[in-house]
């Protein structure tokens, strides 16, 4: 039974993770939050106290940490006695935080693949570029490392595994659809760090089709989907971590990821990209100042955290799975709908951060209880989905299924 | 008889001015080009030699000069013996260059109103904000200062004066229409310094309607015009220097300026403006670097000078004048059509620079000959238009007139 959590990062998702850990600290124990900027960690601690989120008596503490520094992270894990590390910091940190977990035996949980800051849109196989190279190390050390335990990747991987185990004899395709039908009321804003947000879309789009990688340009392939609650929404083929793991682990011949974008978002993105303002390569002004254009764009855009109080509307994210069951063609859509305003009222972050953060806490609770504490590296679809989805039904992200005319909540008890 | 020219500035317009001066150096004498960057002046000198543009034997020389420094400019005028200064540098320099002319007795010619770098879109009366305050000084010193002697302002002022003198008993309205129907083949570029270009459009739009100033937002009032050669083109009400001088000097009740913009230009402009990327107020990046967003936009956009070799198509700029003649309503369109490619072949700049630079040289030739050497400050519409337009017919910008079904070249001999 592992206890005591170290949260790496202090952004919107870390805020959600801290609140959810606090709401479940009878299971999870002490909570520590660490990032480069101590004040941001302290603000999260203050907001947890303000909401009286701690279920049981217990500690929640802020720490300054450069998590690129493996020794410093190792020392902090040892000093705090944390046995589970939830890494929701920058995507550049994964490998160093994992190293600190290996050094201490603490379990590792993240919500997105590792990225090299010098590379934009790395080509697949994504997990095999960094994470999976260290499978052997984890197994030898008996260290549990759960990769991609947010919503997408994360819950959508559990949905695919559930469909694979219970709804199909064979799966032809998994289309993961991510729609944010919410509104922040600003001219333009990204829902998380603009630097990371834009990096996802400036290169090629990779999808897994007919058992091999296919490449498109961003916004080249769009399709209108008719979804529960949010209705008809246009989404575009986009590269995403789980396309790689699901295609390899569940051996599905078609795995595609579709991200919803409004025409306005696409227009702003296209203008900025074509002008060169999304470039991470420095330019020199007429006055001789060296500047990275993307960092200036980030500076003029609203801080994603500032959007939460005014955010209204819903997200709908799920897996449309097609295949064969008992000799007949079948199609199911397994999904969750989350509400921005409710998320803000509960944990002080908007719905996008909420859907990313809550599953990581569910994963931590299953590691704490031993159910997911495998002592090796695993993607979510390698783990039993029922306890995960049952817990998420209870702690804020209920799963529904739509098949033909029937649309109902899924129960896992 | 004044001789010897000092050109201030070394951009696209200065290039045109230098070539045209060289083509007429039998009248104008020595040519000196001065700007902060000596290399840019030297490049212009080299291009004049390369085209063998000098009509008669004579000097053309490059000088390094900060024209904000009145003493340095005064010294350069004295050292070179220049009696006519053509200021086609930044709009921030007008008042200091004028001071140097007053100190030396040299004639002053510019092509745009003075601007304070700290103010965006100053409110009218524009000329009365800076230039006209110094009318008395010029008259006392007997210094000729010709304001706004480019195309617009410049030729369009002469067109209005010609209409006033020869085509109408009373003028109801002057609509100045500026269409660039050319194509540079890039995703987006401005035709002159992006910093100055965008500054024109980020504030309010002022026009003179029914004998008073009226204010609109940029791109609020658009109208499709059917023009010679370039056909149907959409243009938008825009603030412009000559709206002020024409309304005051010719006492016309309606003076409006219409600038042509394609939907694509407006879209890019709108995105950049709404995001705050056209701001001249510094922002701070996450890394703590202070940057002026507009200067970064300028750094990523193509250098306007680099567009010239690939520029194709035509400009059409003119005055649509409505009023009464002999008791009957009358409407004439007096205009010029210029060609980007021909301009580049002749002087190495595109058509926008060509139309701005050639009239300034015509003004200098009329000062040299004495016809426009009034010994005081004047806007173009205060000067006889016929010698100016006759000269421009001959040196590259012929004037045409359209009235009803008839469209013909105007001859002034």
Describe the overall structure.
- The structure is a homodimer of 413-residue chains.
- Chain A is α/β, with parallel strands linked by helices and 413 residues long.
- Chain A folds into two domains: 5-151 and 350-395, NAD(P)-binding Rossmann-like Domain (Rossmann fold, 3-Layer(aba) Sandwich); 155-348 and 398-409, 2-Layer Sandwich (Dihydrodipicolinate Reductase, domain 2), CATH 3.30.360.10.
- The first copy, chain A, has 15 helices and 19 strands.
- Chain A has helices at 12-23, 25-28, 38-50, 70-80, 94-104, 126-129, 135-141, 155-167, 194-199, 241-249, 263-275, 293-300, 340-347, 351-369, 385-395; strands spanning 5-8, 31-35, 60-64, 84-87, 107-110, 145-147, 170-180, 204-209, 212-217, 222-227, 231-237, 254-260, 283-284, 290-291, 314-325, 328-339, 377-379, 400-403, 406-409.
- In chain A, strand 15 (314-325) and strand 16 form a beta hairpin.
- The model of chain A has no long low-confidence stretch (mean pLDDT 95).
- Chain A binds chain B through residues 187-188, 267-268, 271-272, 274-277, 279, 283-287, 289, 291-293, 295-301, and chain B through 187-188, 267-268, 271-272, 274-277, 279, 283-287, 289, 291-293, 295-301.
List its salient traits.
homodimer; 413 residues; alpha/beta; Rossmann fold; Dihydrodipicolinate Reductase, domain 2; 2 domains; seven-stranded parallel sheet; 19 strands; Saccharopine dehydrogenase family protein (chains A, B); NAD(P)-bd_dom_sf (chains A, B); Sacchrp_dh-like_C (chains A, B); Sacchrp_dh_NADP-bd (chains A, B)
């Amino acid at each position: 039974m592992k206890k005591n959590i170290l949260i790496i990062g202090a952004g919107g998702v870390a805020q959600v993770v801290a609140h959810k850990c606090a709401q479940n600290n009878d299971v999870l124990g002490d909570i520590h939050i660490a990032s480069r900027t101590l004040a941001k960690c302290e603000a999260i601690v203050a907001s947890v106290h303000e909401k009286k989120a701690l279920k049981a008596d217990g500690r929640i503490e802020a720490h300054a940490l450069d998590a690129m520094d493996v020794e410093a992270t190792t020392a902090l894990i040892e000093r705090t006695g944390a046995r589970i590390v939830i890494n929701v910091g920058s995507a550049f940190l994964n490998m160093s935080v994992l190293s600190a977990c290996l050094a201490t035996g603490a379990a590792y949980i993240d919500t997105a693949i590792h990225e090299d800051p010098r590379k934009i849109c790395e080509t697949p196989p994504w997990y095999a570029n960094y994470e999976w190279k260290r499978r052997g190390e984890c197994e030898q050390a008996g260290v549990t490392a759960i990769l991609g335990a947010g919503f997408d990747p994360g819950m959508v991987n559990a949905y695919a595994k559930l469909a694979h185990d219970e709804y199909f004899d064979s799966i032809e395709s998994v289309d993961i659809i991510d729609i944010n039908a919410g509104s922040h009321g600003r001219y333009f804003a990204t829902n998380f760090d603009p630097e990371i947000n834009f990096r996802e879309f400036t290169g090629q789009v990779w999808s897994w089709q007919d058992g091999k990688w296919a490449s498109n340009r961003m916004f080249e392939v769009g399709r209108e989907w008719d979804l529960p609650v949010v209705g008809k929404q246009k989404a575009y083929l986009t590269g995403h971590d789980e396309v790689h793991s699901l295609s390899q682990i569940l051996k599905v011949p078609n795995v595609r990821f579709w991200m919803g974008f409004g025409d306005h978002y696409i227009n702003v993105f296209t203008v900025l990209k074509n002008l060169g303002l999304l470039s991470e390569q420095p330019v020199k002004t007429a006055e001789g100042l060296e500047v990275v254009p993307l960092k200036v764009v980030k500076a003029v855009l609203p801080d994603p955290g500032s959007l939460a109080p005014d955010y209204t509307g819903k997200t709908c994210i799920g897996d449309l799975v097609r295949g064969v069951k008992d000799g007949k063609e079948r199609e199911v859509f397994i999904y969750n709908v989350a509400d921005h305003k409710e998320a803000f009222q509960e944990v002080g972050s908007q719905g996008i951060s909420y859907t990313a953060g809550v599953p990581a806490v569910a994963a931590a609770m299953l590691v704490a209880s031993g159910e997911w504490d495998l002592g090796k590296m695993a993607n979510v679809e390698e783990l039993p989905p029922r306890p995960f989805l049952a817990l998420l039904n209870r702690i804020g992200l209920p799963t529904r299924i739509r098949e033909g005319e029937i649309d109902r909540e899924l129960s896992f008890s």
